[in-house]
Amino acid sequence: MSETLQPPDVAASDADLLGQTAIAVRAAGSALHERFGEVVRHQTREELMRALATNDDTALDTLRPRLTRLRPDAGWVEDELDGGALPPGEWWVVDPAEGNVNHLHALPEWAVTATLVRENQPVLTAVHLPLTGETYTALTGAGAYLDGRQLRVSQTADIGLSIVATSQARPDEDEKVVRRVGSSITAMLFDALVVRTAVPATLHLLNVAAGRIDAFWQFAGARADLLPGALLVTEAGGQISDAEGRPWTPRSESFLAAAPGVHAEAVATLSR
């Protein structure tokens, strides 16, 4: 009797790939951790940019060859300020030093992220925080996890009881975006319990996925700082949209991630 050949198990393959991706971001994080501890002084924008690039390169020297071996035919995106849709196929979207400027200033809020995007949909992501040793992972349809413990967004149902957060997408935003950010913070200060403002976006989104804060929003933004958190929040049971409640894509001009119980109120506040 001949055997019936079964199609490959894509989910199992992606689960194994996620495990290897987590190993890769941990290794890259270890390399960056060795460079952390003292404020890196800079007197000019050029000196700052060189220091940022050195950090990126340190992590990429570990991260890129490992991820390329895992998916040799996948494209590669490492510019954390890039936005918009990707060409067809698979792409690695990475931020080798998410919160890089914090790292240079000896602040603890930084991470290494890697997300596999397939036909413009995030399939899996791994985010490693070297200073705490934590690794957050998510796989489409399989949930979001912190070191193996499943994550769920908060059950808060009142924006007035919510901790919310926002972030600056990039330096040198145009005046329209800056003013929109300012007015949104003012609106949330009236409606929410506490408003947090800091970079990077990914760390706020980890907190939404873990149920520690209730909503995060940002105007403008880029793939590398939103895709990892978007997948984590979605797989943890949260809602993703733009700030006006419409479906979010990497082309969108705003982003909102929230617990379901406060999503509509957050949209209403941001739309004022």
Automatic annotation (TrEMBL):
Cofactor(s) annotated in UniProt: Mg(2+)
Record bears the keyword Transport: no
Organism: Wenjunlia tyrosinilytica
Protein name (database record): Inositol phosphatase
Residue ranges that the Swiss-Prot or TrEMBL entry lists as coiled coil: none
GO biological process: inositol metabolic process; signal transduction
PANTHER family the record matches: INOSITOL MONOPHOSPHATASE, INOSITOL-1-MONOPHOSPHATASE-RELATED
Positions bound to Mg(2+): 95, 225
Pfam families: Inositol_P (PF00459)
GO molecular function per UniProt: inositol monophosphate 1-phosphatase activity; metal ion binding
Gene3D superfamilies reported for this sequence: 3.40.190.80, Fructose-1,6-Bisphosphatase, subunit A, domain 1
Gene expressing this chain: suhB
UniProt keyword annotations, A-Z: Magnesium, Metal-binding
